[in-house]
């Protein structure tokens, strides 16, 4: 089957859009380990490029050999089967080698985002108690500042030692053994670790009905290693003999992504829904090499999907759905070229999994009924690390209409299955939200706020601003008397919150209330909480002569943030902006000025006055694609400094 045959089947009307009929190349065996499948590809395609970052790459033989050597070195350091190894690393070639080596040593990897606050990282590291934490030279200082951390090892040094070490016998690992621990936001006030087995990964990308990976595919790797989309990218490529192409910088830009796709003939990629929307909005030319694009993480815009398909008629476009607990994906909907609907379904179950619509008593409902979406099959997590109570609550046994007993994960999502077996998303049962593809439990924010001794109580809720963007709003009830102004009090509370929660969980607005509205049961009536008032105009100094750039930036910020009266010296993130929104500003700024701008500079100058001065000073714009990788270390240092300053 050639690379366009799957799309041709749609154009010829031989299969339904929701049920692509991809004839799988690689069989799925639930008992095989991930690394044995990579070794299989190394035997089949020894000289093919397995991983490429910039000008540096590894063939399948080199990847297999180097990861085995590193696994032996880990075992000489005392790593045994069942251990957890922490990864405090960027998206990089050595990180891929480390993941594979950890699996070969019989351990599970736990990836951490170095930009998270020390308290948040400290809790996760203390919870999973890693035998070792692998770092690079850039992150070693930050990780040592976390009190619970010990046994930190420089990955670069370890790789040098591994090259000189003797071979080591590797343990037997099967499909049911733990492969990784991924932390997600927790409704109890602390993040929870989801333990995923080898078979969950293998079933995601082998012998599948929603995609077919080919040996000549180039799979783009843009996800941070602590985001489960990286699972699809990395192992989708390496378990099928394809090439994994990584963008090594910690901060992406749309031009950089598009240029990488064009220069390297990328054929397959998975993006967050927000990044997919941005790519459609700001990339006018066709990305001709792409044959299959997947997106997911939030409710998708049908308008963006239609526009993409009009511009890329030969590319398959798939809306993917699935929480971390089912190994990235549970269902998929491949959008037909003539799609006319206003709502994009989340599709049908992918292979080796099954979806169920349940009532309150966990009984299966017939088509056309709305209920809780549950997932069964080989993608299910082993459970939550150190949380048997929560594991029992969310992973349950149901009895199907056929009389079978199945272990299922209760997603908390509401859905309806139509008569064709296609799923339609209908919202949440609880207070979990998604912003920029990141899963956020509002209860975790509330719990963190309530630990602040200055507050008698606190509530976190989600609203949409005038631009239609989701914003988290904190409602604060202080202990009397409040000895400062409301503005100073809310700023102080949010400043403390930034030390314990990641930036994407920090409320963009905060309101002080003397009392919370209560319902007849004596509980807070969230439906009666007042919406945040429109932003008051912020007094600004008159724009200097020749201040066109400041005027342009003010207009772009106000459009993206959905507010007016933005001050020249206000921090973009303090105004409730997110990284994804700043990438949108960057893309619009390049279009307006007609030149390339280094995305790192936009993040380094997070207020209008500073960024305008930088742009007007004649500083060089983004380096051409040929020199981007030579500047990777400098970019990483700058972004680490910025993230620490805004945590």
Automatic annotation (TrEMBL):
<keyword id="KW-0596">Phosphopantetheine</keyword>
<keyword id="KW-0597">Phosphoprotein</keyword>
<dbReference type="InterPro" id="IPR010071">
    <property type="entry name" value="AA_adenyl_dom"/>
</dbReference>
<feature type="domain" description="Carrier">
    <location>
        <begin position="544"/>
        <end position="619"/>
    </location>
</feature>
<dbReference type="InterPro" id="IPR009081">
    <property type="entry name" value="PP-bd_ACP"/>
</dbReference>
<protein>
    <submittedName>
        <fullName>Non-ribosomal peptide synthetase</fullName>
    </submittedName>
</protein>
<dbReference type="InterPro" id="IPR020845">
    <property type="entry name" value="AMP-binding_CS"/>
</dbReference>
<dbReference type="Pfam" id="PF00501">
    <property type="entry name" value="AMP-binding"/>
</dbReference>
<dbReference type="InterPro" id="IPR036736">
    <property type="entry name" value="ACP-like_sf"/>
</dbReference>
<dbReference type="Pfam" id="PF00550">
    <property type="entry name" value="PP-binding"/>
</dbReference>
<dbReference type="InterPro" id="IPR020459">
    <property type="entry name" value="AMP-binding"/>
</dbReference>
<dbReference type="InterPro" id="IPR045851">
    <property type="entry name" value="AMP-bd_C_sf"/>
</dbReference>
<dbReference type="InterPro" id="IPR042099">
    <property type="entry name" value="ANL_N_sf"/>
</dbReference>
<dbReference type="InterPro" id="IPR000873">
    <property type="entry name" value="AMP-dep_synth/lig_dom"/>
</dbReference>
<dbReference type="InterPro" id="IPR020806">
    <property type="entry name" value="PKS_PP-bd"/>
</dbReference>
């Amino acid at each position: 089957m050639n690379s366009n045959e799957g799309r041709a089947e749609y154009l010829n009307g031989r299969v339904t859009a929701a049920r692509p009929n991809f004839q799988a190349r690689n069989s799925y065996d639930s008992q095989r380990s991930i690394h044995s499948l990579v070794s299989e590809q190394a035997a089949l395609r020894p000289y093919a490029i397995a991983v490429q970052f910039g000008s540096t790459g590894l063939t399948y033989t080199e990847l297999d050999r180097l990861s085995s050597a590193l696994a032996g070195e880990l075992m000489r350091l005392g790593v045994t089967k069942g251990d957890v190894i922490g990864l405090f690393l960027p998206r990089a070639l050595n990180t891929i080698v480390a993941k594979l080596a950890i699996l070969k040593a019989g351990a599970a990897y736990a990836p951490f985002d170095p930009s998270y606050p020390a308290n948040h990282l400290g809790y996760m590291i203390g919870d999973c108690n890693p035998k070792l934490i692998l770092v690079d030279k850039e992150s070693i200082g930050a990780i040592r500042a976390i009190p619970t951390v010990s046994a930190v090892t420089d990955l670069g040094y370890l790789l040098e030692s591994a090259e000189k070490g003797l071979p080591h016998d590797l343990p037997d690992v099967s499909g049911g053994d733990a492969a990784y621990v991924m932390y997600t936001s927790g409704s109890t006030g602390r993040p929870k670790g989801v333990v995923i087995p080898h078979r969950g990964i293998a079933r995601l990308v082998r012998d599948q009905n929603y995609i077919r990976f080919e040996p000549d595919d180039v799979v783009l790797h843009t996800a941070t290693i602590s985001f489960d989309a990286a699972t699809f990218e990395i192992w989708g490529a390496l378990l099928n003999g394809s090439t994994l192409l990584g963008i090594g910088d910690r901060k992406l830009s749309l031009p950089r992504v598009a240029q990488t796709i064009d220069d390297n003939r990328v054929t397959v990629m998975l993006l967050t829904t927000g990044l997919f929307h941005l790519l459609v909005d700001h990339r006018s030319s066709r990305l001709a090499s792409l044959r299959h694009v997947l997106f997911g993480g939030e409710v998708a815009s049908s308008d963006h999907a239609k526009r993409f398909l009009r511009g890329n008629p030969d590319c398959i476009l798939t809306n993917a759905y699935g929480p971390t607990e089912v190994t990235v994906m549970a269902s998929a909907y491949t959008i037909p070229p003539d799609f006319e609907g206003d709502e994009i379904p989340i599709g049908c179950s992918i292979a080796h999994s099954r979806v169920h619509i349940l009532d309150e008593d966990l009984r299966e409902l017939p088509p056309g009924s709305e209920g809780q979406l549950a997932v069964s099959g080989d993608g299910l997590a082993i459970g939550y690390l150190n949380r048997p109570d929560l594991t029992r609550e969310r992973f349950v046994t149901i009895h199907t209409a056929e009389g079978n007993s199945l272990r299922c994960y209760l997603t908390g999502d509401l859905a309806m299955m139509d008569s064709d077996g296609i799923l339609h998303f209908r919202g949440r049962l609880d207070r979990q939200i998604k912003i920029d593809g990141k899963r956020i439990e509002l209860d975790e924010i509330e719990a963190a706020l309530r630990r602040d001794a200055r507050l008698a109580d606190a509530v976190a809720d989600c609203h949409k601003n005038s631009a239609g963007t989701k914003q988290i709003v904190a409602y604060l009830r202080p202990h009397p008397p409040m000895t400062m102004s409301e503005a100073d009090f809310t700023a102080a509370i949010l400043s403390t919150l930034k030390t314990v929660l990641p930036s994407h969980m920090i409320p963009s607005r905060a309101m002080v209330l003397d009392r919370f509205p209560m319902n007849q049961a004596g509980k807070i009536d969230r439906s009666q909480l007042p919406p945040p008032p429109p932003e008051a105009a912020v007094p600004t100094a008159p724009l200097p002569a020749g201040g066109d750039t400041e005027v342009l930036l003010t207009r772009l910020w106000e459009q993206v943030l959905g507010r007016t009266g933005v001050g020249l010296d206000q921090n973009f993130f303090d105004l409730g902006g997110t990284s994804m929104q700043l990438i949108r500003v960057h893309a619009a700024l390049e279009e307006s000025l007609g030149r390339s701008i280094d995305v790192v500079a936009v993040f380094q100058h997070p207020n209008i006055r500073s960024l305008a001065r930088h742009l007007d000073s004649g500083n060089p714009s983004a380096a051409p694609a040929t020199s981007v990788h030579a500047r990777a270390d400098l970019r990483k240092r700058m972004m680490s400094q910025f993230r620490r300053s805004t945590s």
